[in-house]
Amino acid sequence: MARPDTHRLRLTLALLAVAVLAGGLLTWRAARSGPAGVTPTGAAPPLRLYVNPGTTTPQIPLWAAVRAGRLESVFAVQSQLWKTTDHLQGLLLAGAGDAWIGHIDGFARARQRGAPVVLLAVTGWRKFALVSTDPAITGLDDFRQRSLPYAPFGSPAVDIVRAILPETAAAITFDPHEPRQLALKVLQGKAHSALLPEPLVTTMLQQVPALRVVVQLEDEYARRRGGAARLPIAGLAVHARLVQADPERVEALLQAVLAAGAEMAADPEHAAEVLPPEFAEFVPREVVRQSLARDVILAHAARDVAAEIESYLRIVTPELFADGAGLDPAFLWAGTAPR
After folding, report:
1. What pLDDT score does 281 carry?
2. What is the C-alpha to C-alpha distance for residues 218 and 215, in angstroms, rounded to an integer?
3. Do 268 and 292 form a contact (C-beta atoms < 8 A)?
4. Quick one: pLDDT at residue 339?
5. Torsional sign, CA 238, 240, 243, 245
6. 23 CB-contact burial (10 Å; exposed 0-12 / middle 13-18 / buried 19+)
7. Complete domains list, the chain, with CATH
8. How far apart are CA 22 and CA 102, in angstroms?
9. Could you tell me if 258 and 271 are in contact, meaning their C-beta atoms sit under 8 angstroms apart?
């Protein structure tokens, strides 16, 4: 059996780590004229957008809107990297930036803690997979009375498994790892199975010939719960200040993202090309392209999938619903300034 290229994998993992740890400034202008990062007099106002290159598919609709010029009269996008999910939480709580692309459970937690965050769109729906090099593994039930490594710490994937397979999950010992640590264990044969997110799933499939996807977690959710094989995992949120000051411009941003997302869904082969070229230093475009074989480019207004969002958050953030509590109605953009 062919041995994986250890040096190449370590390089790829190092780049993924840089995507998490980097804090450099990336500037894009929707109008694509004049000096980068400068909004000329009379042009669209800047939109300070926090993103992470490792969040691949959820970014495609917005960057497709930028590339197509759909935001020329709406916003000039200036993007800066968030480093870790904890870093993003801090930014949200401080109200730093105008918009953010990240995990919806993180947005909801921050909103409960007083952050001025309003969820505009859901753009990330399929992320988690059980992978294994053991041909005897056919599903999650095979891990009863066994340990199942997963990454990263606090992954919503564990909560999803507990929701759809409560008896099985109760018999599994979930073993948390940092992504790079677990990837190296799989490479070295010290771990034969893992519960991982994209784009790490695709990276590992490229490097470990015997590795295969056993279960896509969103498919398992649909089999057990019914409905579409998707979960509202990630999306685009904006600062409440924007919603209050210029709701028409916020709605224009949403409509541009929805339209661009629909265009990319019809042409997924070229979807990776709309991401900023700087992002390829962290996650190669070929990884993005291959991950789309298991993913879906889909942008929905948060208000149109409110029931799915609540169902998902009840699984991964049950504390938000303790004692009969519910989501703040103003958390989802309704098309007019929240009351």
Report:
1. 86
2. 9
3. yes
4. 37
5. negative
6. exposed
7. 6-124+231-331 (3.40.190.10), 128-225 (3.40.190.10)
8. 16
9. no
Q: Residue 6 has what pLDDT?
A: 57
Look-up of token digits 């339209």:
259
Question: Quick one: tokens of 321?
Answer: 């619903």
Contact predicate 121/254, CB 8 Å: yes
Q: Give the angle subtended at the CA of 179 by the CAs of 214 and 289, to the nearest 5°.
A: 60
Span 151-175, pLDDT tens digits: 999 999 999 999 999 999 999 999 9
In three state form, how does the secondary structure of the chain look?
CCCCCHHHHHHHHHHHHHHHHCCCEEECCCCCCCCCCCCCCCCCCEEEEEECCCCCHHHHHHHHHHHCCCCCCCCEEEEEECCCHHHHHHHHHHCCCCEEEEEHHHHHHHHHCCCCEEEEEEEECCCEEEEECCCCCCCHHHHCCCEEEECCCCCHHHHHHHHHCHHHHHCCEEEECCHHHHHHHHHCCCCCEEEEECCHHHHHHHHCCCCEEEEEHHHHHHHHHCCCCCCCCEEEEEEHHHHHHCHHHHHHHHHHHHHHHHHHHCCHHHHHHHCCHHHHHCCCHHHHHHHCCCCCCCCEEHHHHHHHHHHHHHHHCHHHHHHHCCCCHHHECCCCCCC
Contact 124, 57 (CB under 8 A): yes
- Could you tell me the two tokens for 315? 């699984």
- Ranges of residues in the chain with a pLDDT under 50 are 1-2, 4, 15-41, 337-339
> pLDDT digit string (tens) for 289-302?
999 999 999 999 99
Q: How far is CA 87 from CA 65, 157, 173, 291, in A?
A: 26, 21, 28, 26
Residue 39 to residue 27: CA distance in whole angstroms: 11
pTM of the model: 0.88
